[in-house]
Amino acid sequence: MRAVVVNSFGGPEAVEVVETEVPRPGARQVRIKVAAASLNPVDAGVRAGVFGGAGERIGLGWDVAGTVGAVGAVGAVGAVDAAGAAGAAGAWSVGDEVVALHYGAVKPLGTHAEYVVVDADAVAPAPATVDAVHAATLPLNALTAAQALDRLEPAPGRSSLLVTGAAGAVGGYAVRLAARRGIAVTGLAREGDEEFVRSLGARHVTSDAVADREFDAVLDAAVLGEPALAWVRDGGRYIGVIPHAEPASVRGVETGAVEVSADGARLAELVRLLDEGVLTTRVAETYALEDAAKAHARLDEGGMRGRLVLVP
User: Fold this and answer.
1) What is the pTM of this model?
2) Cα–Cα distance for residue pair 73/274, rounded to 1 Å
């Protein structure tokens, strides 16, 4: 099968499409035939060596939408490829349409491939209301937003929340999910994005948050760091989206960063919200798998509204 990897760190030119063996699912794993896989900023970070792994072949891709093609037997070593083994890895059967988060920055194979193996408990049913290309943009960004809000614990009707990068993928989901909980959300976004951010449920939108505005919590999806921390009230909370890159605590502000985790049950809840129209997906462009390097070059250019998606 074809898979997108990096064998050395660098820019888009470091991205390679190689031929490799089709992976086999082990116990409590499933193999997914990839229909679509989104490209995220974390993939550019992996490509550049931000997360280490020098000297290793590293597979790219975290998000996947596709079809279960094989399941690993519960408690067994190795894999069972026959349709008769369907469901052995929990609730999943061969032929199920699914989405999943394949967690991990340094891994031999990612989701940017024709097939990928993931843990069965990282998988959720695919949305019924969007196609695989759009579905592939949901797992990483929506889970990150939801888990960041869990860390902040804003109180409905009492807490004020600032979301930086509110028009982006993670920020947009955070605004929508927080507003749905009854949180007073202010979105920090570029001029021109005000209408969109308000449509997500933000009560206020600004392109230049005022320094004297004190929020109970800040979700820093734009990775502003200390400037965003300055907008948190004394004793409030700050959460970033890059683990171990959050600014140091000041004024009693609790600081941290969300490290997204694969959670099929939570992802299923987010899929349900997508199907109900609460959440929406945005696709900027699609690329064939063999054009992965071109997709990385486009990612580096920036200025997109929505995710780039690779289609095998």
Assistant:
1) 0.92
2) 31
